[in-house]
């Protein structure tokens, strides 16, 4: 009597199994279609990429004078470059995009720069391979400009400012093991201006050596301000020393600083050329060169940091795996919205020849680093 009911149950189970099989088949078809579509999109993207790459190569062969780093074709006349340099050193300010030529420094001392680079008939004008709006690459042994782009135009230095901060501090500090206590004014200034920091705490007593490394390796505003106040009593007084140093270097007509950290202010500016001079002056100082050449440094133990703080050199960590023609490269990065990503670096080859590179207004920190790597790779080859 119960057989019909059991037959219905069996039929229902069979229908459910068929339905599940059909659903699974539909899911498999959809997955296969999605995979095929993804493969097609990937192949199309690869084809477009290859096509664009080929167009770039062909265009480079048709028009080799575009001045790319890889082509090394376009040359600027030495007369034009050196005339621009002479103008920037003799007029009232740096050549800038607006063309007003005004500078804050009066340059009344007439002091000539200790370091002066000149263009030659082999100086290159950089092309599309370099993303930075401002660039300069110099050979300090011959004091020659190997390549440039708007090197005498006014630009925002951002944290490259700390190159001069470190140099001025190094010339005034007598005891690197002396100590300084971080104040609430320092931490508040750094917080208010959204600065990067070494990581020192309020009321933490640290050595001046730690402040120096904290200024350069992690680009710490807390460390920079600590150095400034230790040396001069206030940031304002220290900035006066910085601008006095610019005057000594013959740069007061084209560079002017208003803070020791690198935050943007309208009257805080420099040029790529001037940054190269500052870097060369800095690496002539033994303490500065030691700090710039350090990859990792651990600060002294304090109550707040019993094991110290491990500080890393941002520039070195970003460029150390790049091809730079075998030259170890060290430097200082920077960024504010108005400057874009920027950096100033130096490298010395096995023969003792030192090069300095400055770039600014790149679209990202990695593009900036790549610009430096490309320039070292292409411009430091020796016969």
Element layout with pairings:
Blueprint: H1 3-62, H2 78-90, E1 118-125, E2 134-139, E3 144-149, H3 161-172, E4 179-181, H4 184-192, E5 205-207, H5 208-216, H6 221-232, H7 235-248, H8 272-283, H9 286-292, E6 296-298, E7 310-312, H10 314-319, E8 329-336, E9 340-348, E10 354-362, H11 365-379
Parallel strand pairs: 1-3
Antiparallel strand pairs: 2-3, 2-10, 4-5, 6-7, 8-9, 9-10
Helix pairs in contact: 3-6, 3-8, 4-6, 5-6, 6-7
The spatial strand order of the largest sheet comes to: 1-3-2-10-9-8
Instruction: Work out the radius of gyration.
Output: 29 Å
Kindly, what is the distance between the CA atoms of the first and last residues, rounded to a whole number of angstroms?
A: 104 Å
Unreliable residue stretches: 59-78, 91-113
Helix content: 40-55%
- β-strand percent reads 15-25%
The helix/strand order is HHEEEHEHEHHHHHEEHEEEH
Q: How many strands?
A: 10
> From the helix content, strand content and strand pairing, which structural class follows?
alpha+beta
- The total count of helices amounts to 11
Main pleated sheet: 6 strands, mixed
Shape: extended
Mean pLDDT: 84
């Amino acid at each position: 009597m119960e057989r019909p009911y059991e037959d219905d149950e069996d039929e229902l189970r069979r229908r459910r199994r068929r339905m599940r099989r059909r659903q699974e088949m539909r899911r498999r078809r959809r997955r296969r279609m999605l995979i095929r579509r993804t493969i097609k999109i990937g192949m199309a993207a690869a084809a477009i990429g290859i096509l664009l790459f080929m167009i770039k190569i062909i265009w480079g062969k048709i028009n080799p004078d575009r001045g790319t780093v890889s082509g090394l074709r376009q040359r600027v006349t030495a007369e034009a470059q050196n005339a621009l340099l002479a103008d920037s050193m003799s007029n009232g300010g740096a050549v800038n995009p607006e063309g007003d030529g005004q500078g804050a420094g009066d340059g009344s001392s007439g002091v000539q720069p200790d370091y002066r680079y000149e263009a030659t008939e082999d100086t290159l004008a950089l092309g599309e391979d370099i993303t930075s709006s401002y660039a300069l690459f110099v050979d300090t042994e011959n004091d020659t400009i190997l390549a440039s782009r708007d090197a005498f135009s006014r630009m925002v230095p951002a944290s490259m400012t700390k190159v001069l901060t470190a140099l001025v501090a190094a010339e005034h500090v007598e005891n690197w093991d002396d100590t300084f206590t971080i104040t609430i004014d320092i931490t508040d200034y750094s917080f208010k201006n959204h600065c990067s920091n070494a990581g020192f705490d309020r009321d933490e007593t640290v050595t001046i050596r730690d402040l120096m490394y904290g200024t350069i390796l992690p680009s710490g505003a807390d460390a920079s301000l600590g150095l400034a106040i230790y040396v001069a009593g206030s940031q304002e007084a220290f900035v006066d020393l910085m601008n006095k140093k610019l005057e000594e270097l013959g740069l007061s007509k084209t560079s002017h600083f208003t803070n020791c950290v690198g935050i943007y202010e309208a009257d805080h500016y420099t040029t790529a050329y001037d940054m190269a001079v500052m870097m060369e002056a800095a690496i002539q100082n033994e303490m500065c060169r030691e700090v710039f050449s350090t990859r990792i440094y651990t600060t002294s133990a304090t109550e707040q940091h019993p094991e110290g703080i491990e500080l890393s050199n941002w520039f070195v960590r970003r460029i150390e795996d790049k091809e730079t023609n075998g030259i170890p490269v060290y430097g200082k990065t920077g960024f504010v919205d108005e400057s874009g990503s920027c950096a100033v670096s130096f490298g010395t080859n096995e023969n003792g020849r030192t090069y300095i590179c400055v770039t600014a207004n790149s679209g990202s920190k990695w593009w900036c680093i790549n610009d430096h790597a490309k320039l070292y790779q292409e411009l430091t080859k020796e016969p």
